[in-house]
Every structure is written in C-alpha cells, then in structure tokens.
Design brief:
The longest helix has 17 residues, at 47-63. With 131 residues, the chain is an all-alpha fold. It is built from seven helices and no strands. The protein has a domain at 45-131. The radius of gyration is 22 Å and the shape is globular.
Length: 131
C-alpha cells in the first residue's frame, strides 16, 4: 500500500493524502489595482474622507490578497498634489533615520496626518453619545 501511495506521489508530485497545498496567489499588477477605479488622493479631503479613502484602499487589497510589498507602491501611485510631496519628504526623513519604509509605516503616518487622533477621538465620543 505504501509503495502504491509513493508511486502516485512521484507521478503527480502531490501527496495523495492530507490537504493539498494551496497555490500561491496570482501576481497582482498595478493595472489590476487600477481596474477598481479608486479616486486619487490629493489631501484636500476632510478627515472623514481621508479615513474612508484608506479603508477603500485596504478593502481592495484585502479582497484581492494583494501582497504587502505591492500595497505601498500602488497606494503611492494614487497620491497627487500636496500628498505626493508630503510622502516624498516623509520618505526622505525615514531613509535618513534608517527607518523601514513599509505599508504599515505609510498607513500610520498617513492616518496621523489626514485623520489625526483628535478627530478619531471626537468621532468615538460622538458615537458613544448616540447610544
């Protein structure tokens, strides 16, 4: 029986018993991302709009299983005007400080700038007063 199982595994390269390995997610390109028609972000939005824009970006990334290394590049591509300049300057500062430039670092700084804690706390208080 073991010899038969081994023969089957050798022929297909896949174990005959147990869970099948999951194929890697397909490569996701900038063109794939742009098909979702997300609006560019220019920094002239209200804090609520900035927060919603970031949620929309993350929703697309999560639904399409976009790898973290692509998330930052795709998001930066959508920045225009003042925000594009803001990120270029922040990135230079981070490089000078030898900080890791990642999607999570970008997201933290973006929300700190365009959806500051003071606004977030005010929204939380407003929500709690509704109940």
């Amino acid at each position: 029986m073991d010899a038969l199982r081994q023969l089957g595994e050798n022929a297909t390269g896949v174990p005959m018993y147990g869970p099948r390995p999951q194929p890697p997610p397909p490569e996701w390109s900038l063109e794939d991302f742009l098909k979702h028609q997300l609006a560019n972000f220019d920094g002239k939005a209200s804090p609520d709009q900035a927060d919603q824009w970031m949620k929309d970006v993350e929703h697309i990334f999560d639904a399409k299983r976009c790898p973290n290394q692509s998330r930052l590049a795709f998001t930066v591509y959508m920045l225009t005007g003042e925000v594009e300049h803001w990120w270029a300057n922040i990135r230079l500062v981070m490089e000078e400080r030898h900080e890791e430039i990642t999607w999570e670092a970008f997201k933290r700084r973006f929300l700190s700038k365009y959806f500051p804690d003071s606004v977030r706390y005010a929204k939380e208080v407003e929500f709690l007063q509704l109940t």
